[in-house]
Amino acid sequence: MYIDINCDMGESFGHFVIGQDEEMMKWITSANLACGFHAGDPSTIYQRVQLAKKYKVAVGAHPSLPDLVGFGRREMKLSPDQLYCDLIYQIGAVSGFARMAGLSLQHVKVHGALYNMANRDPMIAETIVNAISDFDPNLIVFGLSDGELLRMAEKKGLRIAREFFADRTYMDDGSLTPRNHKDALIDDPVLAAERVVRLIQERKVIALSGKEIPMEAETVCIHGDGPNALFFAMQIKQALEKEGIVLKSLIDQ
Length: 253
Hints:
The protein is an alpha/beta fold. The chain is 40% helix and 18% strand. The chain has 8 helices and 10 strands. A 7-stranded parallel barrel has the order 1-2-3-4-5-6-9, surrounded by 5 helices. A two-stranded antiparallel ribbon has the order 7-8. It is globular, with a radius of gyration of 17 Å.
């Protein structure tokens, strides 16, 4: 069995440092790099691409709504044309730095509020998929397994990767528990690792209500801005290796 472990990173901005990106690179297989709209800046993108090259981690773009103050976690109304252009701009930024380092962009994973909006709104999902396809139809699209984004991506003929969140809880319908819920986040690395192993071996996850729900995933996410992110990554990788589950980026599978 194979699984990809991805991490949202490159979210430092100017003098403000977020996450332990270099240490995280040692425990993951794919990096989702912020593109400057919710976090990140040109220097940070450059430095994180170089780290990804050093640790042989696949590079992906992590575009967002234009919401630097709200860290991309506030919903905004954008026209399809504006969203399309914003995505091309952001994907192009990460792709340019990757190309300069001799790497190819592996995937696109939209960030925060846009991720949630895309998984429930067909029009937003279609705009995102069109932008990704027009930029590079070989890019892999990350999203929730039953969301509109991946349905649109498959319809367009793009490769998809269903994503499981190691540090988030789920509702009965398979959606992520809203962040404003007191139990939205998992703060126990051991529990997170157990959930990931069960997901891969049994294709099931326990929802917040206690209900057992079926779920498929090709990639597991760890949020790099979490205070325990590094411990999560270490615990999950060790638990997977103990079970004989091989960690590989999607481009290597």
